[in-house]
Structures are given as structure tokens and as C-alpha cells.
Amino acid sequence: MPEVPINYLAVIIAAVANMVIGFLWYGPIFGKTWAALSGINPDPAKAEGMGKRYVLAMLGSLIMAYVLAHSLVFASSYMQVSGASAGAMAGFWSWLGFIAPVTLGSVLWDGKPWKLWILNNAHYLVALVVMGVILASF
Q1: Whole-model pTM?
Q2: 64 and 18 Cβ atoms separated by less than 8 Å
């Protein structure tokens, strides 16, 4: 079986980029809107256990970047593209095929508002495209 060329430094950088995008997205950019749509109280005094949450979020980001790196290898071979456009395409198709349909359940079954779905999915789309571009650029 051929060795899959995964750049682990790129995986780490992509995972960190995902965390930074999430921090900005759900903090200074759309934090108040997200909290209102989610019904979350943004009171810092109620934010216990944040260290553990960030560690778990970082682990999830590393897994997502690692799997996206593998998807990029397969997508590049199949579509005969490389570079940033291949990364952007891998991120977009991963979002469209996996994230968007799965998170649709939050609106259909959990009664969450469409605006929240759009806000969360726009975050995932931006994050996956940026991660794909980072992974493809190494």
C-alpha cells in the first residue's frame, strides 16, 4: 500500500487556524448573535470548565484537519488539481457533503432557528476552506 503524504505540521497549523476562526467567529464577530440564537448566557462567571472544553475542541480540530488532509490527497488524485484551489474544493465539498446535511437536523428535529444553522454552517464552511487551503499549500 502506498504511503499517504500527510504533512503533520500543516495538520497542526490547520487545526490552530480552525480554533482561531472559531474564537473570532463566536467571539468578537458573531458572539452576541450566536449566544442569543443559541439561548446561551455569555456571562463569563458561568463559563466553568472552559479549559477542558478548549482541549476537547482542539482535539476535534486536529482530527478534522487530519481527516481533511486525507480527503485532500484523494480529491487531488481524483480531480487532478493541486494547490490552494484543491484545498478550497476539498473543504467546500467536505462541508457540503458532511457538515451541512448532518447539522440540518438541528433545525428539523431540535427546533433550532435557521439563522443559527446559517451562522454555524457559514463558520464550518469558512473554517474547512481555510484548513483545506493551508493543508494544500504545504
Answers
A1: 0.90
A2: yes
